[in-house]
């Protein structure tokens, strides 16, 4: 008999798959030829659904990755690998998120890929995120407690930590590796700081983003305000919820197998 934790994990993975499938079905259309593929635990299901659209559509498409994980998924799926240096404008980018609020502001960077993720998000005509129900909140910081990811050049790490405290961050910390000694190193050879802020400051993510980016040594910030066109959340019961930038919300949408 499956344990409660195993059952919960299965439900969460089913939720991620449902959200990813629905997002691909709605936003990766036949006419789309240039597609950005993001990072995170929902993205394998995104690629799985795109592959299922068939070789006739996919042979004319190029897929631009945000990092090592998505590059491998593209290659392993038999899809054509593209590069942002060649394709600076994309039809659509689909990515995961660490947290999404009711206004479709995002926190990203739990995997320390937020610089490349933001480039691909801004390069796309449509930027869409997929997540499970645990990533949905009323305000940023409500669910994601680790803090705002801030990519910094290594030389400036101590300086940035001090400046983040002056901005109101509660105990910002250099992110350390779990399977290595020392700090996490991004795909761009930088360090990553996790900077928790009070909810009051998180209510204005655009303002907070600008203040953090003014700090010398900051490369990019994992706040994504006013850029997401739609967010798809997989629920525990297999249904999905869809939030759109126009303010519309669909709850308990039944998904296709």
Automatic annotation (TrEMBL):
<dbReference type="InterPro" id="IPR037171">
    <property type="entry name" value="NagB/RpiA_transferase-like"/>
</dbReference>
<comment type="pathway">
    <text>Carbohydrate degradation; pentose phosphate pathway; D-ribose 5-phosphate from D-ribulose 5-phosphate (non-oxidative stage): step 1/1.</text>
</comment>
<keyword id="KW-0413">Isomerase</keyword>
<comment type="similarity">
    <text>Belongs to the ribose 5-phosphate isomerase family.</text>
</comment>
<dbReference type="GO" id="GO:0006014">
    <property type="term" value="P:D-ribose metabolic process"/>
</dbReference>
<dbReference type="GO" id="GO:0005737">
    <property type="term" value="C:cytoplasm"/>
</dbReference>
<dbReference type="Pfam" id="PF06026">
    <property type="entry name" value="Rib_5-P_isom_A"/>
</dbReference>
<dbReference type="InterPro" id="IPR004788">
    <property type="entry name" value="Ribose5P_isomerase_type_A"/>
</dbReference>
<protein>
    <recommendedName>
        <fullName>Ribose-5-phosphate isomerase</fullName>
        <ecNumber>5.3.1.6</ecNumber>
    </recommendedName>
</protein>
<dbReference type="GO" id="GO:0004751">
    <property type="term" value="F:ribose-5-phosphate isomerase activity"/>
</dbReference>
<dbReference type="GO" id="GO:0009052">
    <property type="term" value="P:pentose-phosphate shunt, non-oxidative branch"/>
</dbReference>
């Amino acid at each position: 008999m499956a344990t409660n934790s195993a059952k919960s994990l299965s439900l969460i993975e089913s939720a991620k798959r449902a959200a990813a499938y629905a997002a691909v079905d709605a936003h990766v259309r036949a006419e789309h030829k240039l597609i950005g593929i993001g990072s995170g635990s929902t993205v394998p299901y995104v690629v799985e659904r795109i592959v299922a659209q068939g070789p006739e559509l996919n042979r004319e498409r190029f897929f631009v990755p945000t990092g090592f994980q998505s590059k491998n998924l593209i290659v392993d799926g038999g899809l054509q690998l593209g590069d942002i240096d060649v394709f600076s404008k994309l039809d659509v980018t689909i990515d995961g998120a660490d947290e999404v609020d009711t206004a479709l502001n995002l926190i990203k960077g739990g995997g320390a890929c937020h610089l490349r993720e933001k480039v691909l998000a801004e390069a796309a005509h449509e930027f869409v995120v997929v997540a499970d129900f645990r990533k949905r909140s009323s305000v940023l910081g409500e669910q994601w407690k680790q803090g705002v990811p801030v990519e910094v050049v290594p030389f400036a790490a101590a300086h940035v930590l001090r400046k983040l405290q002056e901005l109101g961050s509660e105990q910002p910390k250099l992110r350390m590796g779990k399977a290595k000694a020392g700090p996490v190193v991004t795909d761009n050879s930088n360090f990553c700081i996790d900077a928790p802020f009070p909810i009051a400051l998180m209510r204005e993510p655009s303002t907070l983003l600008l203040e953090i980016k003014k700090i010398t040594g900051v490369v990019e910030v994992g706040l994504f305000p006013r850029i997401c066109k739609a967010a798809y959340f997989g629920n525990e019961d297999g249904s999905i919820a869809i939030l759109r930038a126009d303010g519309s919300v669909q709850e308990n949408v039944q998904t296709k197998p």
